[in-house]
Write a structure and sequence with these properties.
By secondary structure, the chain is of the alpha+beta class. The protein contains 4 helices and 4 strands. It has a 4-stranded antiparallel sheet with strand order 3-2-1-4.
Amino acid sequence: MSLISRVRTASALPPGERALALRAVAGLALVRLVLPLVGFTRIARALDGTTVRRHRRPGRPPSAADVRRAMQRAARTVPGTRCLAEAIVAMRLLRRAGLPAEMEIGVARGSDAARPLDAHAWVRSGDFTVTGDAEFERYARLIQVSGGA
């Protein structure tokens, strides 16, 4: 999809969805730049210390499903997006909306040394999967970051 098509699509969204999608795109672009420089540990500490802010814009607050749609749009817009960057941004958006958020990072069970490491990151809000759709049982959890409501 061309940039002009993306702008047209974004301008047709309701204002709340458009703002959330723009925050997701900006967040992904920023995380893609910063993550290699500062590393995940510092970003996880910053996420852990983030205060939960309740939604203050007019209209209804974003739901976990709204954040999921915004992240899907953003991932299609920002080239080279990986699951870890998506998870970091989704955590931030959920926490800003005052929603429960849990990021998990795991490695595939039964990986052999001849293959590259198969790792994956995903975010859930309650029982709802926001990013990182996968066969979660395939992965042994290594890291969990929780927060939100």
